[in-house]
Amino acid sequence: MACVMLSGGMMKRKIFKKLGINEKKWMLCLMLTGFAALNTGFISESNAIKEAKIAAVEDTAEVSPVPETVTIDNAGEIKNVEENNGSENVAEEKAEVVNNVEYVEERPRENMVETSRGAVRYSEVMTMRATAYLPTDGSATGTTAMGIPATYGIVAVDPRVIPLGTRVYIPGYGEALAADTGGAIKGYKIDLCMESYSQAMRFGRRDVTVYILE
Known about the structure:
This protein is α+β, with helices and mostly antiparallel strands. It has helices at 2-19, 23-62, 82-100, 135-138, 197-203, and strands at 70-72, 78-80, 112-115, 118-133, 154-156, 167-170, 174-180, 189-193, 206-213. The protein has a 6-stranded mixed barrel with strand order 4-8-5-7-6-9. A two-stranded antiparallel ribbon has the order 1-2.
């Protein structure tokens, strides 16, 4: 193998000498040529990478997301109005809630009287002279002019002042039904049925305020 390599080297030197080429210069040319080729490859690869990056950027720009909701101003420019759209939706929801609210007009507290059942509306109020009677004072059977039993909560009135069947409220006595009459009950007089003689005596005779309930 050493002989072959020596023979090859000697032959190469003979060829260079015949062609008039210096061996060292020839080797230098070969090295420069190799470096040039290698550098060209690097440059080509670098350019290819740059081109690939540019292409990727262009592709990304082409598929960039477009706002779902856009508007165009007077200058023809497109503006993103997603934020405004959200606020408008909120405003619309609030308006809808307000529109769906049922406003109940509060009835005025005028013409209202407090009873054991709470506030009750009345249509008229008057001052009357009141007396008390027992269920059997009007009739032996204790039946009223309307044909119902006389008991606490039944009052005798003048039908020309308070029609029979009218519901009334008398402070200190309570709610009552005008369902009876009496020979002495004329005009602004009212007779209140009591449960016992002692209760009637304690009540006696007094002026009372009578509320005509609705």
